[in-house]
């Protein structure tokens, strides 16, 4: 990626960890993000072979290493070097720094770009909101898939409890014969369902959290620099799993409580 060295500091926070930033870009040197430099064993002064489709092969000297920034990509050069190897390049973005007190810039830019349907103007807050919207859209898809998984799990719990009641008909009859009340039978079956639901919910949350942390760590070079575990949502899902387990046990618990005592005892 190419950028103008002289005005880069006005629009982008370029955190240099080694070497120089804008001066190196102005001198035709290459800037590399820290992760790529570590993976490719590059350091300030390294010579990097570069091949361009139009101008062929050449070499560049690494002049600086910067902290990963999704706006700048992995390799950054000055506009002078960039334009000498690309004819009529298509800009990815134009970053503007607005002076304090300036008003009407957004309107003027929108009017100027009205003929270009594929170009839009966004403030920093709007750009962040659009990126969050993309993540939320993916998260919504995950929630839909999770809802389907929960539905299948509830059907599994109901099926398991119904089979359990059927297989333990004799035992339930004996318990009723020695004094267990109907509500106690219902509570027994419901407790079993809640335990199964909580076990599955907690196990899924732990595994999902570990996978989420690993995914966020893998995306740290794409701008994901902070890992946040939604504790409130996690607690809510645990409570929800218990409530859904309790709801799934309603039919099996009612059937177990309504068994005829003598017929259940006679069942082998």
Tell me what you see in this structure.
By secondary structure, the protein is of the alpha/beta class. The chain contains 11 helices and 6 strands. Strands 1, 2, 3, 4, 5 and 6 form a 6-stranded mixed β-sheet that branches. A hairpin with a 3-residue loop joins strand 4 and strand 5. The longest helix is centred in the middle third of the chain and has 44 residues, at 124-167.
Topology summary:
Blueprint: E1 2-3, H1 5-8, E2 16-19, H2 22-26, E3 30-33, H3 34-39, E4 47-52, E5 56-66, E6 75-78, H4 79-83, H5 105-112, H6 124-167, H7 169-177, H8 182-218, H9 231-248, H10 250-257, H11 261-266
Parallel strand pairs: 1-6, 3-5
Antiparallel strand pairs: 2-5, 3-6, 4-5
Structure summarized in a few sentences:
The protein has 268 residues and is an alpha/beta fold.
SSE order, one letter for each helix or strand: EHEHEHEEEHHHHHHHH
Arithmetic mean pLDDT: 84
**Low-confidence runs (pLDDT<50, min 5 residues)?**
none
The class by helix and strand makeup works out as alpha/beta
* Proportion in β-strands: 5-15%
Q: Biggest sheet, in brief?
A: 6 strands, mixed
Domain count, please report it.
2
- Taken from the alpha-carbon principal axes, the silhouette is elongated
What's the end-to-end separation, in Å?
A: 77 Å
Portion of residues in helices? 55-70%
Number of helices: 11
Query: What radius of gyration results from the CA coordinates?
Result: 31 Å
Q: How many extended strands?
A: 6
């Amino acid at each position: 990626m190419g950028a103008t060295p002289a005005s880069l500091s006005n629009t982008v926070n370029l955190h240099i960890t080694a070497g120089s930033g804008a001066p190196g870009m102005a001198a035709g040197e290459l800037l590399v993000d820290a992760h790529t430099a570590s993976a490719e064993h590059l350091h300030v002064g390294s010579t990097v072979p570069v091949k361009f489709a139009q101008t062929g092969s050449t070499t560049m000297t690494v002049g600086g290493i910067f902290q990963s920034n999704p706006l700048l990509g992995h390799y950054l050069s000055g506009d002078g070097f960039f334009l000498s190897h690309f004819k009529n390049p298509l800009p990815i973005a134009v970053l503007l720094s607005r002076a304090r007190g300036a008003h009407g810039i957004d309107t003027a830019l929108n009017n100027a770009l009205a003929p270009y349907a594929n170009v839009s103007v966004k403030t920093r807050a709007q750009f962040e909101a659009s990126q969050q919207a993309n993540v939320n859209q993916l998260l919504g898809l995950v929630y839909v898939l999770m809802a389907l998984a929960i539905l299948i799990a509830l059907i599994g719990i109901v099926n398991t409890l119904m089979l359990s009641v059927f297989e333990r008909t004799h035992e339930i009859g004996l318990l009723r014969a020695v004094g267990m009340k109907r509500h106690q039978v219902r509570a027994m079956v419901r407790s079993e369902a809640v335990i199964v639901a909580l076990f599955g919910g907690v196990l899924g949350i732990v595994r999902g959290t570990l996978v989420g942390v690993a995914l966020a760590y893998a995306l740290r070079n794409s701008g994901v620099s902070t890992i946040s575990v939604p504790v409130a949502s996690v607690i809510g899902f645990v409570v929800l799993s218990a409530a859904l387990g309790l709801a799934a046990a309603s039919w099996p618990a009612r059937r177990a409580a309504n068994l005829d005592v003598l017929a259940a005892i006679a069942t082998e």
